[in-house]
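Input/output pair, single chain:
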Amino acid sequence: MDRWLRNTNVVKVVALVIGIMLWLVVHMEDNSVPGTSVTGVREEQISNVSVTPKYDANQYYIESIDPAQVVVTISGKDSILKKAMGASNYSVELDLTSYGKGERIVPLTPVGFPTGVTVKITPPNAKVVIDEKSNKQMPVTVNVTGIPAVGLKAGQPVVKPNKVTVTVPSGSIDNIESVRADVNVEKAGSAVSSKARLVAYDKDGKVMEMATINPAVVEVEVPITSPFTTVPLQLKLVGEPPRGFSVASLQQNTDKVTVYGPQDVLNRMEYYEGPSINLADLKEEKEYTLSLDIPLANKATQLDPAKVEVKINIVASATKTLEQIPLSIIGQNDGFDTKVVLPESGKLNLIVEGAPALLDKVKAQDVQAILDVSNLPPGRHELPVVFNLPTFIKKGPQQDFKATVEISAKQGAQSSPNAQNNQKSQSDQNDQNAGSSDTAKQ
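Output:
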């Protein structure tokens, strides 16, 4: 064996054989995989690779990319292809960083493929439409759904924050109609608090999918209360200040009250009667300040506010004579004529008393002198005069007025049997009353 190895020709032959065997091994490995060429390079196709835009998302909005997916063909040695196919960080990029608003055709760029791989993108370019973003501040509205527990109702929702910023493509900025949060209060017996996601809607009531809202979530609280209504608060004034004193002014710190209670009661409520004030108890010339509880009544369960503060200014009275106040007749029967016979003028003079500042403004036409002839039969009748005076103005002392009216059937009108009987049965008495009565006292 040593003799063979010392022979140079034998060594050359052995080296040649080993070289041929190594060449065969390498080329057999390359030809063992389909797609291998005689040069050792092969191709692979990757379908449906998404196009990834690179742009300033704070300033621009991508309306469309065409195509949105492409085919990528890579070629290279098998070992490198295996590495490329196994990778997950490659992409096809659409670099828009140097472009502004408008329609563009931009070349596509392979990113993340290993060195030694040839990449071909089909198609090589993409058409892209770019729009600028615009911001608009919008109030948050709350859509309350569901029905609370029996006898309760949902109140006005409280939202924090109550305004948000909506970002959309500039072409859609005028289409924003509302930003809404939905809160369900089904069978709720107390206030409902929740974090609600906001949704932007256009003028057709459709969701604006491209809108970005900041913040996207708000805190909403929906109070759950008894039904309520807000109505005027009416104080109940009783009596008058003693003779010689009058009310110059009356002020209350609130003229409305929110009443909670059964819905059927609230539906019929036009005002709420507050506390009673006896003006006869105010016997001094000064300003009274009264803090009064507003009483619960008419099935009300709660009032807001529960108190009212009243300031009443009492001053020394003055007097004034109002002349030629006409007498007004109410309760007339359409089938009869009614007229005032005493006093013959049909007018009265009246002395009134009140605070000087109020009294200066009172005129005769501000006073009503009323005769009520309701249900009276034909004939003469002496009736008391009832006066309707302005607020905080009263009659002077010792002025009890009476007046005489005459009721007769209208000419051409036929009296009913009952009216004729009444007229006959009372004619003597009426004549006696009319004959004995004096003229109206003034």
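Residues 186 and 350 are 65 Å apart (CA to CA). The domain at 41-123 is CATH 2.170.120.30 (RNA Polymerase Alpha Subunit; Chain A, domain 2).
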